[in-house]
Records
---
Amino acid sequence: MAEDRRTRRTRRALSNALVELVLERGFSALTVEDITERADVGRATFYSHFRDREDLFARVTAGLLDGLSERLRPVMAESPVGFTGKPVLEMLRHAREERDAYRIVLRGEGDGRPLQMFTDAIARATADEFRDRAERNGVEPRIDPTLLARVWVGEQIAVLRWWVEHETPPMPVEDVVRMLLDLGLHGRYWASGFNDETTDGTAST
Amino acid sequence: MAEDRRTRRTRRALSNALVELVLERGFSALTVEDITERADVGRATFYSHFRDREDLFARVTAGLLDGLSERLRPVMAESPVGFTGKPVLEMLRHAREERDAYRIVLRGEGDGRPLQMFTDAIARATADEFRDRAERNGVEPRIDPTLLARVWVGEQIAVLRWWVEHETPPMPVEDVVRMLLDLGLHGRYWASGFNDETTDGTAST
DNA sequence: ACGTTTCGAGACAGCTTGTTCAGTAACTTA
DNA sequence: TAAGTTACTGAACAAGCTGTCTCGAAACGT
């Protein structure tokens, strides 16, 4: 007994309507009726699928994460022991396809809860990766992996957001990845045009 | 004619009530009456000061930014041409004092708008700094300063949040600053225990 | 073609919002 | 300290939204 076609249809319609409307007016300005109207669905029907607006939003976000992890699976599987920019690249591609959904999540709509869901999922996976890698290579991390993961995810999210908020792609995905790689390799001062000679021990903004 | 003491009192009370309650229940779950009740103020009074909940939240955030920039002013003024971690340090100290307010803003409560206000203010200032510095030293940034600023602010926000969400300070402010400085200087791979030898050109997560 | 599941429209109480108003209390200033 | 101004209160208001329910109609899977 495959899922009823009607439920699929209305769930999709409601999800799309949500994304469109949040993009236009912001989550807190929406009523359930706004959403059902846009989706061309009876209001009562909404409640037979979702508890409330937040529930719908949460499921949209979960769907996004599912899609992402599915895309990431093959890349992680073939994982050479070393480093490739593949995962980030794949995420950027995913963001390009699901641009609007990414936008509303990254903007922190819904009191930041979907964004937190998203961030936490990535941070968790990243921290695990860091630990694994350190162990495999038998090196001692200089900074707590959990914290380091948060920093790294903070960077990614910032760039991702900058990227999806531009109407027209400001830079090819490959360049974005290269940039992040350089940053990870050389640090921020290098990127701003300075190197270790110019900046003494007490460096920074 | 200095400001009436009563207005100061009720505005403070309402602001504090908001912060407390958002921390406890989240912004979207709050009613105006919840806030006025906690602040021990008539509901009608609320509307003679603020348009709605969002307005109140926005002003709380603006106040936070004012406080921050006031603390930053002297540090920026004495600004030696070089780099010191002073501004970040000052921000961490400010966050320690205004911990709860920082928490709710950084969590993205209020559909992320306060957070965006906060982030944008810092990113703008940072980007200007980057540009100034590059010009003063006559070097060419390897990466667009606007983007670089977003990345750097993304890092800061991530760390700040990690810092402020711990009940008991997980690390002295000075160490946090040192860590960020190291990250800016050497990059992420150094922090995770690798160096340029271990990671070849095609590095990263 | 049949039994099952979903959908739609309308009606419901309950709550929140934002405004208004008149009486009372607190404040500033001279 | 008294006079005049300004802020606060509590109550009442229409309007809108929420979440739940019911029943007949329509779409579905097999």
Note: The radius of gyration of chain A is 20 Å.
---
Amino acid sequence: MRYEERFETVVKSAASVFAKRGYHRASIRDVAKAAGMSVAGLYYYCRSKDELLFSVCYHSFDILLQTLQRSLKSVSHPEEQLRVFILTHFEYFLTHVEAMKVVSHEAGVLTGEFDARVAEIKRKYYLRCQQIVQAIVGESDSESPRLRTTTLALFGMINWVYTWYRPGRDDDAKGLADCITELFLHGVKPRAETGG
Amino acid sequence: MRYEERFETVVKSAASVFAKRGYHRASIRDVAKAAGMSVAGLYYYCRSKDELLFSVCYHSFDILLQTLQRSLKSVSHPEEQLRVFILTHFEYFLTHVEAMKVVSHEAGVLTGEFDARVAEIKRKYYLRCQQIVQAIVGESDSESPRLRTTTLALFGMINWVYTWYRPGRDDDAKGLADCITELFLHGVKPRAETGG
DNA sequence: TACCCGTTCGAGCGTTCGCTCGAAAATAAA
DNA sequence: TTTATTTTCGAGCGAACGCTCGAACGGGTA
């Protein structure tokens, strides 16, 4: 299947170009050049620039979600689930930096159906995380504002990474995950040590 | 001083338009319209669109940094400093949502001198925060990777807010600050309670 | 050979972009 | 009033944008 291969090339090139230049700054000509084809040729594989952004976002998040489901399948203890969730997230982010930068950064650019479908899959991801947090804190109300804030704080920690992570300087996914998991569970100043 | 007033109008309009449409999507014509003047008239107050973005970012961060210094002046206990830092951050973010969204989201668009000056002031802000964290965790090495990761995790929590905060639905600055401070210090599952 | 059909492209359409010009209008100073 | 200075703008330039068209390419089949 020549088509499928070429399509993947196109989406990957788009992810790379969008990540480097930002969605609006990146032109369709840049993407075409990166994919090694003409502008007209590029449009054989997509209907619009927006659809290209959608493809990048949707594909990435879809695979991330699937990877997460698979990783969590064999883990039942909530705190271990959290560690697995965070690790999976970092591993995926660090091996798909460009795509995930686009996903994180260009959210809100899409509209209509594209926006709805990406928002839907993001929500699934969020809810799966919230479930884990809920189990850990022992909250019975899934609508609790506190639960929401706490979960979104966790999301902040793990999503913000793309703005500062530098390979070589910073720790790998495992190291980061351990650090963040520990921080989220017990904080920087566990009470147990302050009383002694 | 007619000029100064008009200039502030221009910067505020730019912040608003950039926040709503995103920097690249927003056109200079949008900003001019929002400021109630013609495109040519707008250029009497700035040299380029980039300079406009710089003004928005630099002004905002400059005032935030000054506000922070003032707030921290009378606080010496590290944990209390942390609470004040987070609260100040949220209060400023929530009263300058548009500007801060631009600052957070359009970082990396600027280049050269503009980029350098914004990066410099951001670094000052980061280092002030790192000092506080360092005092809390009792770390002696300011270059510690762990300290870096921990501080940036905190930044993630407080900077990510602009992507999800909804006035009315979510708590106010004080409530958020308490929640995040507690989370950062002791985690969601303090050890003191798990030991029995 | 001829035909087909999935794939590719050069050329270019219409629009919007950031930005500038010279002149006019508003304001202040004489 | 006249003069000088600050502020405003309509008109439009050149470039880049997203996107499209009809034609051509090239490997497989008959």
Note: The two ends of chain B are 67 Å apart (CA to CA).
